[in-house]
Amino acid sequence: MFSAVADVCEWLTERHKANEYLVKKVPLDQLDGWRIGENGDIAHHTGRFYTITGLSITGANRPIRDWEQPIIDQPEQGILGILVKRFDGVPHYLLQAKMEPGNVNMLQLSPTVQATKSNYTRAHGGKSVPYLEYFRSPRRGRVLFDALQSEQGAWFLAKRNRNMVVEVVEEVPVLPDFCWLSYDQISELLHIDNMVNMDTRTVLSGAIVPRRMDKDDPGADPFRAALASDTPERPRYTETELLIWFTEAKARSTMERQRIPLAKVSGWVHENGMIGHEDDRHFTVVGLSVEASNREVSEWSQPMIAPRGLGVVAFLAKRIQGTLHLLVQARTEAGAFDSVEMAPTVQCIPDSYRELPEESLPPFLNEVLSAPASQVRFDCVHSEEGGRFYHAQNRYLLVELPEDSDVDVPENFVWMTLRQLLGFVRYSNHLNVEARNLLACLGFLR
């Protein structure tokens, strides 16, 4: 175990040097093991893993109601699991230094187990996944959190993974690319750009528990205080009222989606070995050739989605009757399992809206980007899932508005407390992955 966060960073550097990695772009039609069908879809020759196909959207409750796009169809459910063990009474989490081809910095801190079904059933013919036995029945240890959670609805079609936290008391052998980290160490690491990967953050959102405040720390962060077990709450709405709001938002949804051949997707072009939007916005589909000496398979190729620009994921916060609330939106996503999920106040790639009229901008985007530094409580750049997305990064923000500020709240937005949001994390298809990721950053504030 490490005594300081600087030691963790040094260990990651050592693990990078101890292994060999090579990632290079290749044309989509030259991906080893992948085929482009007559309909344009890109699929693995085994029929496993995933397919890049097309999706047609009509009637979405968004500024732009109709569009077509490429999307990842990966119907199988993976496992994202973190082992927890107490050392001298202090919970520690077993994370790994995992290489993903889409990571901007190659290695990031990943869950104990991060594996698709194709991977952990060894469809690739490679090595087995370490520690898998703790997360598959009959498992060893006590399950603290277990939920099927959605992935990025903008790029995945109805994709879900099983998020799990399992506590053990037995001795666990620690392999070279793994380490135990405490709650406070992870808290510090979440303030470092591109250090803790997306899959770790979504699992950690289910591991946040209220803790007693340190009475000798009157200057404690207000968001940490909002989670303290001894801090009373006065929510603006009850849980029942929030569920009614969410159900009504889903009932209002008029979005219809239909899978279509990738070759038929309008507004997108296949040239120079990749697929991109005709206006050079949104994202591209690229091919990668990968070598990694410490992965289950040492060499492979795959298609990936590469966003065009840095995204913004932000919650606006405000005190209402003395209790901190976050502004949550019921967001329609092209590939979301249930069409609508609870999302951060702002979630977009601003470059995708360039040259569009003001009314086409996402609500509250200007308020977030123009907020003075005195109102910004959290600001860090984190990567999205590096196994499917190439150099995908979002700027995660928390902006606290003055208590007397007047906010016009549209019908698909609502104020919730931090604890109420964390309660909804326990259930499937409520909070989207971006909201869970940002909650993890806030819940682990020191």
TrEMBL record:
- dTDP-4-dehydro-6-deoxy-alpha-D-glucopyranose 2,3-dehydratase domain sequence ranges: 6-205, 240-442
Q: Which Pfam families did the record assign?
A: Hexose_dehydrat
Per the record, the domain of life is Bacteria
One GO term in the molecular function aspect is: lyase activity
Q: Which InterPro entries match?
A: EvaA-like (IPR005212), EvaA-like_sf (IPR038153)
Write the protein's name: Oxidase EvaA
Organism encoding this protein? Kibdelosporangium aridum
